[in-house]
Design brief:
alpha/beta; Alkaline Phosphatase, subunit A; Alpha-Beta Plaits; 2 domains
Length: 403
């Protein structure tokens, strides 16, 4: 029997951490605080998130006395701070071992085999900023046709190519080749196509595509799908889970497109989950140490919220969260090991319910499954449904907060 939440919207603000986790020093991230880095910027204006309870979260501060939603923060258990392990843990799968990283570049045996299979040379092969690498190697790539291969502090194998030199579908084939090659001790979390265009210093296009590892175990998505529920992805969610447990993919070009598609989903009649990733916070602003851009992007999301929330139906629930941090104010351009926020809103949510600090992103998965009356025994996490939901009742429209 479905207890609550005919439609659940799970929205990931990619990299919106809310302060250093207790083990942040182990990752070189002591003192990181993504939200803290942008909240005082003149372009930051998030009154709707404030009303919902984002600033009532422990360690954040500045929230209203009577927030409209439930709120809390979660500490990661997986051995990493990357997109893949963060999303997998949100969905109930904890990564006990860190995915491999390559601070000195990929070994010769991998690069040589990749070059042999693609018939193209390889440039760079070291950790690099995505914008800097095309600036520094783009001309040689255009001259020689060699592929720009690079990595970062995350578990990624990234391939950049100019679309006039390597058509994007061909670049995708090269990524599939790399994904087949990178197994065992070389099994990076993601292979990423990074097409670019134009003249030097070039610009990256929106035709990025991620090729993730297949989740090794079932997640909440598989459990929901087996129960006959819709499992809809918006943005790169499909790529992160390699399509496993998902019934529908809706690719996006940027945050604006992701918000537009999620708004359309709020007008659709479905029974299950709409799982959205808004990638610009991380890719365009966190990694580029762009405090102002990050602040503006958060404000744009906040301005979008009222129209979306107006479309919610009686049993709907919205979870707004993140997958890791990426503090744009630190010297590092990499992800940061931070707590993630969770803000929950819906007619049956207890206003001001504080779930505190919880250990494990997977409590989100356990709660969502619990809201559908599904058994999450095969996934990690402990439900906090009883802390945030009241018994369904008739609500006087005058009681609802105004957005």
């Amino acid at each position: 029997m479905k207890l609550s939440g005919r439609r659940i919207f799970l929205i990931v603000l990619d990299s919106m951490g809310v302060g250093a986790a207790p083990d942040a020093a182990d990752f070189g991230d002591e003192g990181s605080n993504t939200l803290g880095a942008i909240r005082d910027h003149e372009d930051f204006n998030c009154p709707n998130l404030r009303r919902l309870g984002l600033f009532n979260i422990e360690g954040v501060g500045g929230g209203p006395a009577h927030p409209a939603g439930a709120f809390g923060r979660l500490q990661e258990l997986s051995k990493g701070k990357d997109t893949t392990s963060g999303h997998w843990e949100i969905a109930g799968l904890i990564s006990e071992e860190a995915m491999p990283t390559f601070p000195d570049g990929f070994p010769d045996e991998i690069i040589e085999e990749f070059s042999r299979r693609t018939g193209r040379g390889v440039l760079c092969n070291k950790p690099y900023s995505g914008t800097d690498v095309i600036r520094d190697y783009g001309k040689e790539h255009e001259r020689t046709g060699a592929l720009i291969v690079y990595t970062s502090a995350d578990s990624v194998f990234q391939i950049a190519a100019h679309e006039s030199v390597v058509p994007v579908e061909e670049l995708y084939q090269y990524c599939e080749t790399a994904r087949e090659l990178l197994t065992g001790k070389y099994a990076v979390g993601r292979v990423i196509a990074r097409p670019f265009e134009g003249e030097w210093p070039y610009v990256r296009t929106s035709r990025r595509h991620d090729y993730s590892l297949m989740p090794p175990k079932d997640t909440m998505l598989d459990i929901m799908q087996r129960a006959g529920l819709d499992t809809i992805s918006v943005g790169k969610i499909w790529d992160i889970f390699a399509g496993k447990g998902l019934s529908e993919s809706n690719r996006t070009e940027d945050n604006a497109d992701g918000m537009a598609k999620t708004l359309l989903m709020s007008l659709r009649d479905f029974n299950g989950i709409c799982f959205t990733n808004l990638v610009d916070f991380d890719a365009k602003y966190g990694h580029r140490n762009d405090v102002a851009g990050y602040a503006r992007a958060m404000s744009e999301f906040d301005r979008w919220l009222p129209a979306f929330l107006e479309n919610l139906e009686d049993d709907d629930l919205v979870f707004i969260t993140a997958d890791h941090g990426c503090d744009p104010s630190t010297p590092s351009t990499d992800h940061s090991r931070e707590y993630i926020p969770v803000v929950i809103y819906g007619e049956n949510v207890i206003p001001g319910a504080d779930i505190g600090t919880r250990i494990g992103f997977s409590d989100i998965a356990a709660t969502i499954l619990d809201c559908f009356g599904l058994d999450g025994e095969d996934t990690a996490g402990t439900s906090f449904k009883e802390l945030i939901l009241r018994e369904p009742r008739s609500i006087d429209p005058d009681e609802l907060p105004v957005f």
